[in-house]
């Protein structure tokens, strides 16, 4: 099994992650413009790559000063799932949030994505609300989860 490396998500990763977005999120996938906008805004994005530099997963965090952050996305290639890459990506985002003095981290996750919800719960995220029909193309609800630093 190859080594997983975490590094900064850069503009040249966008084309490579678009097919992953389509596979993982279907009609709710992000467009190239959405990724470009996130990077242009200075949001913190990380990429997990293998020995050859192939993107296995990616994640983003938007910090809203003074002390709030939102996990924007976490995606892991289907053939790389179950290897702890999602945990590595989430840990990298939470470490960046802590570095920036974030007191509250929030995220939205599809209400039918129990696997992701379990991961977030392992890191102290708790449900605080539901956004009905948040994922518009599929009319899927989003569960809003929050993690507070003590």
From TrEMBL:
SUPFAM superfamilies: Acyl-CoA N-acyltransferases (Nat) (SSF55729)
Compartments reported by the entry: Cytoplasm
GO MF term list: protein-N-terminal-alanine acetyltransferase activity
Protein name according to UniProt: [Ribosomal protein bS18]-alanine N-acetyltransferase
Organism: Micromonospora terminaliae
A cellular component term, taken from the record's GO annotations: cytoplasm
Catalysed reactions, as listed in the record: N-terminal L-alanyl-[ribosomal protein bS18] + acetyl-CoA = N-terminal N(alpha)-acetyl-L-alanyl-[ribosomal protein bS18] + CoA + H(+)
EC number per UniProt: 2.3.1.266
Phosphoprotein is among the record's keywords: no
Keywords linked to the UniProt accession: Acyltransferase, Cytoplasm, Ribonucleoprotein, Ribosomal protein, Transferase
């Amino acid at each position: 099994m190859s080594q997983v490396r975490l590094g900064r998500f850069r503009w040249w990763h966008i084309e490579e992650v678009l097919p992953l977005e389509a596979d993982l999120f279907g009609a709710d996938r992000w467009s190239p413009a959405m990724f470009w906008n996130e990077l242009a805004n200075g949001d913190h994005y990380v990429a997990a790559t293998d020995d050859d530099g192939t993107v296995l997963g990616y994640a983003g965090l938007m910090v809203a000063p003074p002390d709030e952050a939102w996990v924007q996305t976490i995606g892991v290639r289907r053939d790389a799932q179950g290897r702890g890459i999602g945990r590595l990506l989430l840990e990298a985002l939470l470490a960046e949030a802590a570095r920036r003095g974030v007191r509250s981290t929030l995220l939205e996750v599809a209400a039918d994505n129990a696997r992701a919800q379990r991961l977030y719960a392992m890191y102290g995220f708790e449900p605080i609300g539901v956004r009905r029909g948040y994922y518009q193309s599929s009319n899927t609800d989003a569960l809003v989860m929050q993690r507070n630093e003590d």
